[in-house]
Specification:
The chain is an alpha/beta fold. It has three helices and five strands; from the N terminus they run βαβαββαβ. It is about 25% helix and about 15% strand. α1 links the parallel β1 and β2.
Length: about 120
């Protein structure tokens, strides 16, 4: 893992696929390049982890939310979501196996992101 860090806060959801996928693509690209990436999904962004949404093709030609988030976690990054915004939680299971995704998203609070803002570049989509 690189000594470079970035955190990406996603508040745009499936109703704004261009903005959502731009943020997730940037996070996945940075993670694949070796940057330590933390993604926090809140508000409408947390809806991306709902069953049936995570594996959808939201824009033709783009990977699904699940595919992009999997790049982040497989690169050693973190995917977290607001438990108030997604009270049903994330099953971490691909849709093909009856779940919503394979992103390994975990519930978390926004406080840790606020604390890191002094040291980590932060982008909000």
């Amino acid at each position: 893992m690189s000594s470079q860090h970035v955190q990406v806060i996603i508040v745009s959801g499936p109703d704004e696929p261009k903005r959502l996928l731009l943020g997730l693509s940037m996070a996945a690209g940075a993670a694949a390049a070796g940057t330590n990436v933390h993604v926090f999904l809140a508000m409408d962004g947390a809806r991306c982890l709902q069953p049936g949404v995570c594996d959808q093709t939201l824009l033709e030609g783009y990977p699904s939310v699940s595919e992009l988030l999997s790049v982040v976690t497989e690169s050693g990054g973190a995917v977290e979501y607001c438990p108030h915004c997604l009270p049903t939680g994330c099953t971490h299971t691909p849709a093909a196996q009856g779940g919503s995704c394979g992103c390994k998203g975990v519930p978390a609070g926004l406080t840790s992101y606020g604390v890191r803002m002094a040291d980590w570049p932060t982008v909000v989509f």
